# Entry
Amino acid sequence: MKEAKYKCGLVLSGGGARGFAHLGLLQALNDAGIFPDVISGTSAGALAGVLYADGYTPREILKIMNHGSRLDFMRPAMPREGLLQIGGIIKILTSVLRSKKFSELKVKLYVTATDLNNGKPVYFSEGSLLDPVIASASIPVLFQPVIIDNICYVDGGVLDNLPLRPIEDQCRSLIGSFVNPVGYMDKVTGLINIAERTFMLSMSKEIIEKSKKFDLFVAPPELTGYKILDPEKAEELFRLGYKATKERLKTVDISRFT
# Structure
């Protein structure tokens, strides 16, 4: 049997502002002595993943990304290719990322984006960091697509919201963090809310089957009560992810991840 290339792999889903729960998960893992040596993320998972792989602690990332209201991240745009601008996130990453290329990161990272031209998911792991990460987080309709080498890319969650594929056969153990549970929603009104709900539903497919492939899978059901475009409850989401992970860790043999 071929020896696994990595000891512990971590897969981080998309989910907008719910992605702050990923940071709570990472903190709980680190507190338990678990430090993933390869990460695969999409959208919010790509944002959390790139900063963690760049050497920031979960709490440092929380502070970096929780510096203001959602208007700092998303401002209205002329509705040609996207309703909102993602300039705030670009500004944050440009100012704090110490690594400019995937090869400079402290932890191996795969970032998923959706190739609109060819209709397929693409898993970036080489070259420049910024554009693939922004592309991975560019929710279609809400944000303008990102052009990389003449190809139009949008949020990786459109086709792969839990990007296990790049690392599935490379790891001794696998941890999954899914922050996009889809529960009942009483009122769905307004263009942005409808677009948000539609996108969340499209991203939730195939998750049950994928979840069976992880040695540890964390998907807090309480996250259904949080909007994907509301980063103002970051601390609350962090604590929720931390608590859920601590509880799940009680049910597994931690030594398999260390």
Remarks:
- The longest helix spans residues 234-249.
